[in-house]
Design goal:
With 82 residues, this protein is mostly helical. Helices cover 98% and strands 0% of the residues. The protein has one domain (1-82). The chain contains one helix and no strands.
């Protein structure tokens, strides 16, 4: 009878240890998921800012090309009449 009680106690301790490890791992996984969600959110914000910045930069570059082209056209027209 003592042997059975000892085995039961040992099994209960092992079960308790297993449950504690599972809870600890679940907490770590939840923390990792929160970290990943935060990183993804930050990445989306940065990507959005970068896309906006690229669009503005492309617009500025296009405007600069138009200005250079119009200056070139003005010079050509001026040279034709001088």
């Amino acid at each position: 009878m003592t042997r059975i009680k000892n085995e039961l106690t040992l099994n209960q301790e092992q079960l308790m240890n297993t449950i504690q490890q599972k809870v600890k791992m679940q907490i770590e996984i939840e923390e990792w998921q929160e970290d990943m969600a935060c990183m993804v959110s930050q990445n989306v914000r940065l990507t959005s800012r970068l896309a906006t910045s690229d669009t503005k930069m492309n617009q500025r570059t296009a405007n600069q090309r138009k200005i250079r082209l119009s200056e070139w056209v003005r010079q050509k027209v001026h040279n034709m009449y001088t």
